[in-house]
Task: structure prediction
Amino acid sequence: METLTAALRSLLPHDSVITDPVRLRTYECDGLTYHRATPGVVVLPGTAEQVARVVRLCNDFGVPFVARGSGTGLSGGALPREDGVLIVTSKMRRILEIDLADRRAVVEPGVTNLAITEAVRDQGYYYAPDPSSQQVCSIGGNVAENSGGAHCLKYGFTVNHVEACEIVTPDGDLVTLDRMDPGYDLLGAFVGSEGTLGIATKITVRLCRAPETVTTVLAAFESIEQGGQAVSAIIGAGIVPAAIEMMDALAIEAAEAAVACSYPEGAGAVLIVELDGPSAEVERQFAQLRDICSGAFELRVAADAAERAAIWKGRKSAFAAVGRISPAYIVQDGVVPRTSLPGVLAAIDRLSQEHGIRVANVFHAGDGNLHPLVLFDDAEPGAGERAETVSGAILDLCIEHGGSITGEHGVGVDKSRYMPRMFSEDDLDTMQLVRCAFDPQGLANPGKVFPTPRLCGEVPGVRKGVHPLVESGKAEQF
Ligand SMILES: Cc1cc2nc3c(=O)[nH]c(=O)nc-3n(C[C@H](O)[C@H](O)[C@H](O)COP(=O)(O)OP(=O)(O)OC[C@H]3O[C@@H](n4cnc5c(N)ncnc54)[C@H](O)[C@@H]3O)c2cc1C
Result:
């Protein structure tokens, strides 16, 4: 590492290479603070060419590297390696081009999600995917996680909004993956690859036209079951709102304590439904929505942008707010079909009671994307283990109901052990082959996503010798 660090210093400006043990600790974890490691060295390149040179050096020295944007990830994806280099993109924050005629923006990876919208808002445009961390999370991190957000129900995830990516491949080449390229959808493979297939250095994103009308509604129900039924009924009626979010009583209690959002008192669940589009369509959908939510004991409609922001305030601050009602918590992220929501929520409640662990629910209800917040007191012996058990059992529930172990926070280091519950050995081996094709040396973010990382050349890997199908004359090798 010492020789490598000296070489890094010759490549980058002095203040872009961090080795001071105290400063290194700033980078020891992402938003999942349970996993920590002090990086061997941290670099803050300012250009794509510098990223490429750092990666080439890592290859020369056979040293692993991990990309980091803003470190808000919730699955330990940016957890550094003690024997590796952490490549942080926070100095790469330029918006390089805005092309409203083609509805595109070209940005560096460290640009924050919200900064893109802020750059085009006055012209009537915005960038649609909106993770609740959007004020700080980087677009490079969004690409790596295929991030979602409240408005992804109608508009799709990051993958639907990225047109092209310049990347530094794991062996240090600078290449561009474009949606328009014929052949395999390599851009599709890269988006959501959690830093294991290379580092994004320039991203072309789609810009959307701001809708003519936005109507934001807060519906308060006595129980979470009633809220869940309303969600199914809204979608069943053919309405695709821009967002449908739900919070249960415990999540509301936390949000009230943190940001005094003034949600209706005594609510067992609140739904936030946002309708957007042409005025006539929104008016018609709102009339339907009012009928569907007739069981709500209060229905608030935001009269202006300030009231809309007030409704969203409680939801957007919900994760952090939980710190007000519990000393420690695990943010879980799983998906179930929407119709399974009431059953799964009831099962989570049973798990919570069995293990004496409180669970607050706040989630993207329209997508069936649950974010149970599993609360525990880390000073109480055994509470952390019980919370882990509940958290894992929730993922089993999601799989049993035909869902997934992650909706938008990624697998990272946290959920790699759950991958075999969803995928067979063959599935995992096939994914490893893709990884090996991009990263034959296994240096890009190793130890993430897969439970048993294999080196390329081991099984699975490049076959040594003639394939039996070729030998039998059934296939031909070119
Ligand atoms: C309060 C809060 C709310 C959140 N709400 C949401 C939400 O609503 N929806 C949602 O989807 N997520 C949400 N998240 C999770 C998180 O913000 C997203 O996953 C986000 O995309 C991470 O971006 P980042 O810049 O912080 O990435 P980091 O945490 O720094 O990194 C995340 C992963 O991306 C990789 N990476 C980073 N930059 C690059 C790059 N340039 N090239 C290749 N790989 C890279 C890292 O190696 C790592 O694997 C939330 C997090 C918090 C703390």
User: Anything to note?
Assistant: The first helix runs from residue 2 to 11. The chain is about 35% helix and 20% strand. The pocket of flavin-adenine dinucleotide is lined by residues 30-31, 66-74, 77-78, 89, 109, 131-133, 137-138, 140-142, 144-145, 147-149, 194-195, 199-200, 319-320, 408-409, 445 (CB under 6 Å).
